[in-house]
Amino acid sequence: MIQASIITIGDELLIGQVIDTNSAWIAQQLNAIGVPVKRRVAVGDAWDAIWDALDEEGKHSNIILITGGLGPTADDITKPLLCEYFNGKMVRDEKVLAHVKHLFEQVFRRPWLEPNAQQADVPDTCTVLFNSVGTAPGMMFEKEGKVFISMPGVPFEMQTIMREHVLKLLPQRFKMAHIAHRTLLTAGIGESFLAERIKNFEAKLPSNVKLAYLPSYGMVRLRLTDTGYDVDAIEKEIDEQFATLQTLIPDVLVTNVDEPMETVVGKLLLSKKQTVGTAESCTGGYIAHLITSHAGSSAYFKGSVVSYDNKVKTDLLGVTNETLQKEGAVSEETVMQMVKGALAQLNTDYAVAVSGIMGPDGGSAEKPVGTVWVAVGNNKKITTQKLWFRYERKRNIELTAINALNLLRKFILENS
């Protein structure tokens, strides 16, 4: 079967200064056209490391995609290395040169320097993949039936070359298998307990159907994958297995589509033509951020009161001083009053409120770090939940937000 390797180049990737998002994006695009990624490798800006990676990945994969190291500075060694690796010599591509000059003179409006012209130099053993949005072109080489494609490390430039060239070229050179995925999201059950519940189903899966467990933020995604060359048969088989899987876990099933919790909630609100607002203390507006990260959220999200300070809780949300003094800001009574205040201030059908101790400081024996109270409600009813998290601050905030959204989801289903 055709399979791919991805090589990302740059010291910044190895020291953690830059997060490698290119590999994830490339893998998603390859998967969509039927090319599974077998290996992903990151190497520094070192000649021997890059050369060895090319040798090694050429042993494992038919398609090797490379990003990084194509700039005009001395540390960008990918292009000269590829020239030597594929026994070529540098030639100047006039189309690329004209494009680079146009970018500097008309778009960037920067002085023209000779090193910029070197961006148009390419090995004569490659096929140039024109970069319409940047200065460094992509390059495709072929060796012993394997295809090597080098692209810039700048994400939007790499993505443009992938869309305009790579994803069109690969199906012309290789017979692609069909890869079908089906993903669902569960909440309220741990990975091991979920595995126990569906172990008989998993044991009976056909050999070509794989089940993956993907835990995250207190939830677990289950993904079925089927691969083969008969598209209709593959789609029929995976649909049947996916339907069976859903019947085994109806009580913990959130959605049978691969989408995040905030999208599930947004679609639910949109379908009912209802609205929500948030009153956030410990999450600092993160719940609102998740909701509004999706286009069209203005149809169901009205706004947020970030009541980080207790005075904001009292002045804007109507939390009483008596409650704060007696029960504290992190309490069931406080979040219930925050919900009532948010409903009044934002004039929404539903409101979500959270107050907690995210850490690393601020906890006590009675209310340790990671203690969170969540409330969701409408003008008729309010539901609360107490949570305990044991992680660092950022993860505690993320877990609070996702659990609050899930509580909202269940409340809407039960009370609308």
From TrEMBL:
It comes from the Bacteria. NCBIfam families: cinA_nterm (TIGR00200), PncC_domain (TIGR00199). This is CinA-like protein. The lineage of its organism: Bacteria, Pseudomonadati, Bacteroidota, Chitinophagia, Chitinophagales. SMART domains: MoCF_biosynth (SM00852). Residues 5-173 form the MoaB/Mog domain. InterPro entries: CinA (IPR050101), CinA-like_C (IPR036653), CinA_C (IPR008136), CinA_KH (IPR041424), Competence-induced_CinA (IPR008135), MoaB/Mog-like_dom_sf (IPR036425), MoaB/Mog_dom (IPR001453). Belongs to the CinA family. Pfam families: CinA, CinA_KH, MoCF_biosynth.
